[in-house]
Amino acid sequence: MPMIELVDVTKNYRTDLVETCALDSLSLAIEEGEFVSVSGPSGSGKTTFLNVVGLLDTFDQGTYTIDGQDVSKLTDRAQSRIRNEKIGFIFQGFNLIPDLDVFDNVDVPLRYRRLPREERRERIVRSLELVGLGGRLKHLPSQLSGGQQQRVAIARALASDPRLILADEPTGNLDSATAAEIMHLLHEINEEGATILMVTHDAGCAAQAQRQIHLLDGRLIDYRPTEAPNIRLSQIAPVS
Amino acid sequence: MIVYYLKLALRSLLGTPTQTAVTLLAIGLGIAVPTAMLSVHHVFAQNPLPEKSNVLFNVRVDSWDPNSQFFDVEPGDPPKHITYQDMDRLLKSQIPSHASGVSGVANFVFPGSPDLQPYQARMQLVHHGFFPMFDLPFRFGSGWASQADAQRQRVVVISQDANQKLFSGENSVGRTLRIGQNDFTVVGVLGPYNPTPVFFDVIRNQMGPPLDFYLPFDVVRDPSLGFTISADTDSWGPPPPEDDPDASFTMSERTWIQYWVELPPGQLQAYRDYVDSYTLGQKELGRFPRPLNNRVTPLMEWMEVRNVVPPVSVALVWISLLFLVVCCLNLVGLLLSRFLASAPQLGVHRALGASRSEIFLQRLLECELVGAMGGLAGIALASLALVALDHSLPDRMAPPGTFGIDGYSLLVAFTLSLIAGLLSGLYPAWRACRVAPAHQLKLQ
Amino acid sequence: MEIGPIFRSLSRNKTRSILLILEIAVTLAIVLNCWNLMMQQRESLMRPSGIDEKNIIAVEVQTFGPDYQDWEYRRQVVSRDVAALRQLPGVIDATPISNFPLQGGGSSLQAKPLGARDTALTRAPVYTVDDHMLRTLDLEIVAGRAFEAGDLRSEDGPVIMNVIVTQDLAEALFPDGDAIGQTIDTGSEEWPDIIVGVVDAMHTPYGGGPMESQILFYPGFASRASGMNYLIRTEPAAFDSVFSAVDGVLLESEPSRVVQVQTLLEIKGGGQVISRFSVQVLSTIIGLLLFVTTLGIYGMTSFSVTQRTKQIGTRRALGASQGAILRYFLLESLVVTLIGSALGLIAASGLDVLIASQMDSERLGPTVLATGILLLWSLAILATIVPALRASKLSPALATRTV
Q1: Which of B115, B303, B323, C127 is 20 to 30 A from residue C283's alpha carbon, by CA?
Q2: Residue finishing a domain among B274, B305, B336
Q3: Predicted structure pTM score
């Protein structure tokens, strides 16, 4: 059974006058442990696709199952629980909460999971150490560089041990050297067993995925390089 | 979780100090005005004797002129006072457990000490039942017995302040005090006593402080003692015969006495019947020309009858609550902009697993926090206003310390701020929890 | 020009517009009613007393000892006192008086034409004064004559008295206008009083109602065993020097007395405490309300300017002048203010009815309505113009910038 499976998912955006089709009968299955990139031109529905997969947005037709569970039938609370426990988000704009320091930012999903204090602390420290920010617990986001902020965001996504990581242009706001570091980190996470679904319009990034999906006008062009071997971690050594 | 939400709320408020300050000022003003007004109102409207107020009654009988309305009462009401002769006869009823007339006289007090000048004082005329009926606290001695009333004994109960001034605070029971040309024996010294309002004499001494001297009522009838009545006296009808100096008490229609009774439970109707049958008897003797119109009024109702709470004070309370409504409408706008401005962060929380109800609760708590902090600001502003008010009113109206922040004001401010926070927060919090997370995460 | 778009934009920002409309409506309702209450209280504060209150000193003398039980003794003391006071440089005149006017109460009685039915009884504040009262109070005789020395009571006990009444009392007792020489009954048909003079208007607060200007003056040496009161009217320039000299003059002749000197204005102030308190509180509430609502309007316009920064840039790029942008925001705020005012007027009348049912107060009048609404509108324009000007100065280049 695939981890996530979309069958004929359609989503339209309506304004007063125009109706735009963002996802058009999209069907897709992703197995646990895959590293999938989604690319496509601007307006092709990439972000909508990620939002639907991440349960951040609804859709009009079709079915979407996670671990065999039909999500459109779930209550808001149950959907929130899936986001909290199974999914980790990494955004282009990092989306850290500016009023909270690094520690507290990573703490947010763990709080919603109502974990005991000790376990939260352990997970926060562990995931921040994993992204190399173990010594910056008390810094505010505004005191960090862009790359560091994205690492915090990754640590936050990892802290709740999600099985699915959704990354929306994770390197979009970063210089190339930092971008390479972040990609390296994502590969490490994938090696550990997490499924990664990454939206990007950077062909270089997209090429590093096991499987590349192209979206055009809300339709899917799945490209699975069967003959080419998976790119190994060792082949994309960090720049710095 | 609540604690965590409060922490988030506090962080978020501290993150935008200017906006928070404006918001707190807006709601602080909104809390301050009704808090101050309700505190003032409370001083006027409080129950001065909560444990007994339901068994104490003011008694009025309509002995007034058939051709003119008594002028200082609502149309249709009997006079505010009763006459001496009616009091004298009503005192004979066995129904009340206690009863007393209350009025005032003026005379000079001659302190024993040569350092003190003689001074004129208004003194309270009461019967022996006054002290147990109104639970006056005694520091030394007690009130007088019923014979003292009957025999016009020259005894006096003095206040703690007077005892301090005249007898340096010692136990002065048994000592003498010269009032006018005569010596009176101190039989009791009161403990601290400062009811607000001075409910048994609201007609002349509403805002207090209570008088320093209490005398057996009938001493006023002894012309050699030189007391002059100090109360609103209103008369009608022919003047009493000139040759009998006592006739102005026993035969005139002069009203000048507030009459009080304490009734045992269940005796109210019996006492009303008694008062009515008394007046019917008087009608047969040619008095009480008006229709039967007697009142046995419970204490708190009497406060209303006498407008102890100025009508303008009630109006001001309502107006101040409407002022709070305006401030709340403003607050709704401020909170709404605040939450919509932080919509991207709401999206993050949603993405990280917060359900709608959690976001709603979180934001509502933030509103309550704003309300509570605004309440603190409001208490500070209200206490300034009350201090200013206390200074601006003359002592006659409001002795120093009449108005100020007390437990009641704190309770009012706290309740108002929580209600204001809740009501103003409901809609913005609802809007916040409906924010579609997907739309907020892309840009930033 | 842009009314259509403004309404569409308002209905898109429905919540904020509704909030502001409600806020303006409630504000207007309260401000109008507070203003109305305040004007009434002010009116009672400003109501002329008809006497030269600014230049009158009020003296309260407390006396001790058995001598003062004797009426004749007191008469001598009073005569000596007023004579001495009139000698003071700067004093226009002085009179003994039974109790001070303007203190909000005092002593009153009921009077009717002699022989009339009791239904004709009219209640009147009563003051006992001597033959110097006209000059002391600064009242004018409009009919009949002033008190003369011969009118003053020469012994204790009941006599037929000559009295002076105010014009209002004269009209209340004798609507035909023939008060002079009439006899009135103030409780005893045997000892009626004869009206010898009518003075012009005088008004003393006495719990409200027409009796406040229906005043009755008795001639005499007002005094009690416990003391007496005097009023002294001075030249404005001499007020302070007389004020400080009174004490000494009175104690010189009779040292064993206590003298308290006040200005009549102080006494008047004491009687008007509730009114003055109300005026203070009401004006504070009005000020705070207008302040808060002005802030609210300012806040909304600022918000809507910030929200539409890019849109404004685009409009400017497409050729809208600064004036057009300014006009747009002013019109938007005007529409909201107008709707709010209309609702506010309805709410104000409702509140007015409610208040009138609780206390006797005059109803809202057109003057109050007009001033209140104009004031609110000017504040609304003021609160709009600042952010609107900022909007009009935004650069057209903003249109091309991605925010």
Answers
A1: B303
A2: B305
A3: 0.77
